[in-house]
Amino acid sequence: QVQLVESGGGLVQPGGSLSLSCAASGDIFGIHAMGWGRQAPGKQRELVASITTDGSRTYADSVKGRFTISRDNIRNIVYLRVNSLKPEDTAVYYCNAQGQYYNSHSKLETFDSWGQGTEVTVFS
Predict the structure, then answer these.
(1) Which residues contact 114 (CB under 8 A, 6 or more apart)?
(2) Cα separation, 122 vs 124, whole angstroms
(3) Fewer beta carbons within 10 angstroms: which end of the chain, N or C?
(4) Using only C-alpha atoms, what is the Rg of the chain?
(5) If we measure between CA atoms, which residue out of 78, 73, 82, 87 comes closest to residue 28?
(6) Are 92 and 48 a contacting pair, CB within 8 Å?
(7) Contacts of 41 (CB under 8 A, 6+ apart)
């Protein structure tokens, strides 16, 4: 299986910044896409940023110009730099990865995994 572990959340005032990171581990063959989603209290999870192996990036309209996603393809780490934070950015941020891994029978299987989340709170 593939495990994802996020870090970097915390408390920040409006206008502040944070850097989130997420490391993928396991018997990974390759990761096609990595991304970040978030879930605010009482709302559904939304994907806010994603990046493919060749560096193609997509962002939700609500974060364009403020969030920057990047990745280390060698170490299977994805980063999210969040700037100009607003109270509405308060949420649990989850890392996502999609790719292939070797199962217990050494056969390739696809995966689409989420981490446990890291909390970001923007307060005045």
Answers:
(1) 4, 37, 94, 95, 96
(2) 7
(3) C
(4) 15
(5) 73
(6) no
(7) 91
Is-contact 37 94, C-beta < 8 A?
A: yes
Under DSSP, the state recorded for 103 is: -
Q: What are 70-91's pLDDT values in tens digits? A: 999 999 999 999 999 999 999 9
38 is written with which tokens?
Answer: 């978030």
List, in order, residues 6 or more apart from 62 with CB less than 8 Å away.
48, 88
Tens of pLDDT, residues 28-41: 999 999 999 999 99
- What's the full length of the chain, in residues? 124
Q: Rounded to the nearest 10 degrees, how much is the dihedral formed by the CA atoms of 59, 43, 121, 57?
A: -10
Q: Please, which residues have CB within 8 angstroms of residue 115's CB and are 6 or more apart in sequence?
A: 4, 5, 6, 22, 94, 95, 96
